[in-house]
């Protein structure tokens, strides 16, 4: 029971109100007849838990009260607990307007929207006319007006029908109504009882519902209080809104950058244009837009206009040519893009740390879905050139590159340096609000440097600049403020723009001959710098070279208006390097990098802690009614999946595999206190059978031992493919290739792979001839 309570406490962010004093609430006198001694047994059996977000610590205290007596007999053998706290006075407002799924799929509205779109399509086809961007805005306004009126009328009709029904029941059919209501209630009770009994055996809880429960539990978007710059707690809605607007207005306010410093850094970045650039400036086509719309998630939240992706998916065939024409108008006249079109709605998600500090919340911008289609369209044009202009050690947001490459490379580097007793310093860098702080000027200069056509650059910059955002707090939206720097987290184009801007920093470090880096093996290849988006790491032999890296970081921050967070950056020492006058804090604990924990000895195993997390999670789900299929979904989606990322690199010990298998077996068994009446307690399915495929009667539960082997084989297969195509761009691939050539390691390539490699080699030879 204690394990279950603790799991519930952690999951729901609860605090034990007497966790510091731990005063006993139950006592009993025990007399030992053997030695005639008396002792008092005291236990803390009673507790009060409160959600952390509801606690005002300055007005909080807990009392342990002795229970009152009647005729000298205590009402209880437990002490009473009493606590006083003040709930924040937060009023949730009516939700903003959103287009409902039922309205989109309504037969009436389908006909009306089709009729409206047909008018625009006819105008587009007659005499080869085009739809301007202003006409698109007009169309969207008409669509929203039609849906608003429909939903308003629909709601009014529903309320009127209910009112009439109640009136009719109260007058003409009062007796029959009460009898019918009683029968309905009895029927519902019986239905619930049957569902409860059947649930253990044949009903399934959908994975979507389970995910919603998890999301609701962990992402509480209600903001009850906030701390201002002086650390004072504010819990009035209007003042909370003011603090948020003040914070984000300052964050997104214009900060001066240095174009000369940026141009100097860009000189180290050579870009060779080829045929990939040829189609960038072409007009957008209906087919491109259809491809973008097909990739949309119909369940994503809409932006400020309230029109979701589902609308565009439903009417994609008729909308595609209209959107293509309007978007092409923005290629020619980007200045016509309106503020409303690119306005964003910011919601904030809690991160680690004090939830009352605004900086500890991640801003996500909900852009209008039409804006995201536009942005995604541009992004699809730029993505093919990324692999040609971004260095191979940047693994973030470049197709065909994997986060694991940097993890494996770093681990191999540390192991090699330790084996050869080579001293070194690995530094992990933390940018302060990386995506939110890069200047718009640095984005413009980066796009110009890689030869993006002028019309595309102008379109991108008009989508970014002079845009506004509001913040949604407890259902209310704040006043708008201008976004004068940064890229929006939630915009499809943002990751691409960010990796293009930060590339100048990587090139400057990689091409600085004074920085020698650290070796992965005894070849000439040395590792200096690697990144996954803004998560960057440098590898140097001493603090003098680290200072050179920091100088480049300072130049980059000056050039782009960004800021390096020195206090949150950290250095890992390999051996005993010279770290005199080092500015970056030296880590004494394992440091997290790309999800793994590193020390000067390499990756630190976190499997025991991970297994405890999985166990706590499963304890919560064990207390709920679930069928075998639901349990399987829970196991795969919320427990075993947590092992997947780590098992690419880590190896499970035999006792850990046994623990995992026991957890699976325990979870699949029917809970003792949740059985339908009249049925015997039995295991729902043996673990061995549960691993079988569905077609032979199993539930396809992962075999973790085989899965981790398959994941490591996948890594080896990626290496073989790189050898085959002569694209060993990852550092550890180059290291492995060198070791194979020197026969330091051996790898057997399947014969069919060798044949294919030979065929490719012959094809290239024939082409050259």
Automatic annotation (TrEMBL):
CDD domains: RT_nLTR_like. Residues 330-598 form the Reverse transcriptase domain. It comes from the Eukaryota. SUPFAM superfamilies: DNA/RNA polymerases. InterPro entries: DNA/RNA_pol_sf, RT_dom. This is Reverse transcriptase domain-containing protein. It comes from Dictyostelium discoideum (Social amoeba).
């Amino acid at each position: 029971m204690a394990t279950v309570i603790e799991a519930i406490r952690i999951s729901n962010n609860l605090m034990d109100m007497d966790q510091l004093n731990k005063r006993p609430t139950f006592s009993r006198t025990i007399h030992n007849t053997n030695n005639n001694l008396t002792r008092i047994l005291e236990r803390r059996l009673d507790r009060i838990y409160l959600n952390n977000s509801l606690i005002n610590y300055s007005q909080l205290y807990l009392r342990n009260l002795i229970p009152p007596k009647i005729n000298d007999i205590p009402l209880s053998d437990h002490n009473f607990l009493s606590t006083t706290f003040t709930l924040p006075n937060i009023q949730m407002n009516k939700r903003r307007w959103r287009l409902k799924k039922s309205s989109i799929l309504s037969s009436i509205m389908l006909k009306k929207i089709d009729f409206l779109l047909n008018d625009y399509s006819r105008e587009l086809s007659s005499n080869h006319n085009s739809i301007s961007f202003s006409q698109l805005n007009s169309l969207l306004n008409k669509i929203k007006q039609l849906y608003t009126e429909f939903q308003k009328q629909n709601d009014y009709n529903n309320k009127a029908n209910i009112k009439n029904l109640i009136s009719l029941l109260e007058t003409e059919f009062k007796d029959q109504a009460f009898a019918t209501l009683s029968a309905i209630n009895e029927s519902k009770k019986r239905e619930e009882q049957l569902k409860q009994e059947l649930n253990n055996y044949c009903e399934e809880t959908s994975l979507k519902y389970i995910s919603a429960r998890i999301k609701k539990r962990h992402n509480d978007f209600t903001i009850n209080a906030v701390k201002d710059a002086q650390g004072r707690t504010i819990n009035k809605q209007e003042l909370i809104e003011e603090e948020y607007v003040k914070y984000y207005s300052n964050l997104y306010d214009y900060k001066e950058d240095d174009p000369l410093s940026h141009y100097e850094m860009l000189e180290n970045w050579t870009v060779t244009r080829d045929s990939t650039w040829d189609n960038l400036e072409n007009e957008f086509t209906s087919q491109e837009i259809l491809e973008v719309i097909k990739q949309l998630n119909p369940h994503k939240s809409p932006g400020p206009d309230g029109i979701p992706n589902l609308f565009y998916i439903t009417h994609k065939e008729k909308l595609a040519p209209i959107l293509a024409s309007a978007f092409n108008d923005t290629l020619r006249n980007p200045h016509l893009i309106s503020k409303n079109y690119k306005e964003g709605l910011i919601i904030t998600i809690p991160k680690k740390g004090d939830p009352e500090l605004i900086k500890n919340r991640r801003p996500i911008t909900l852009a209008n879905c039409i804006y995201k289609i536009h942005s995604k369209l541009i992004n699809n044009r730029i993505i093919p050139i990324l692999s040609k202009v971004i260095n191979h050690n940047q693994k973030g947001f470049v197709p065909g590159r994997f986060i694991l490459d940097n993890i494996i490379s770093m681990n191999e580097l540390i192991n090699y340096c330790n084996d050869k007793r080579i001293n070194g310093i690995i530094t992990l860098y933390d940018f302060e609000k990386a995506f939110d702080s890069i200047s718009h000027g640095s984005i413009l200069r980066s796009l110009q440097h890689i030869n993006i056509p002028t019309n595309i650059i102008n379109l991108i910059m008009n989508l970014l600049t002079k845009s506004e955002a509001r913040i949604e707090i407890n259902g209310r939206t704040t006043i708008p403020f201008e976004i004068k720097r940064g890229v929006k987290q939630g915009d499809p184009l943002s990751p691409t723009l960010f990796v293009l801007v930060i590339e100048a920093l990587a090139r400057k470090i990689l091409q600085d001959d004074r920085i020698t880096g650290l070796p992965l093996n005894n070849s000439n290849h040395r590792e200096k710098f690697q990144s996954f988006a803004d998560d960057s790491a440098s590898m140097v032999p001493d603090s003098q070279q680290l200072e050179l890296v920091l100088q480049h970081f300072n130049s980059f921050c000056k050039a782009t208006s960004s800021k390096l967070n020195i206090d949150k950056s950290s250095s890992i020492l390999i051996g005993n390097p010279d770290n005199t006058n080092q500015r970056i804090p030296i880590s004494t604990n394992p440091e997290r990098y790309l999800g793994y924990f590193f020390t000067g000895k390499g990756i630190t195993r976190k499997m025991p802690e991970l297994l405890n997390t999985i166990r706590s999670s499963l304890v919560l789900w064990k207390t709920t009614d679930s069928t075998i299929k639901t349990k399987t979904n829970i196991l795969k989606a919320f427990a075993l999946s947590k092992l997947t990322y780590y098992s690419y690199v880590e190896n499970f010990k035999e006792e850990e595999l046994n623990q995992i298998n026991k957890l699976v077996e325990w979870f699949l068994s029917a809970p003792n206190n949740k059985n339908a009446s009249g049925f015997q307690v039995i295991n729902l399915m043996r673990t061995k059978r549960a691993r079988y495929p569905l077609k032979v009667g199993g539930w396809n539960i992962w075999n973790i031992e085989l899965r981790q082997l398959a994941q490591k084989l996948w890594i080896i297969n990626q290496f073989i493919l790189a050898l085959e195509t002569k694209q060993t761009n990852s550092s550890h691939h180059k290291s492995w290739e060198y070791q194979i050539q020197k026969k330091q390691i051996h790898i057997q390539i399947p014969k069919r792979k060798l044949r294919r490699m030979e065929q490719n080699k012959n094809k290239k030879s024939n082409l050259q001839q």
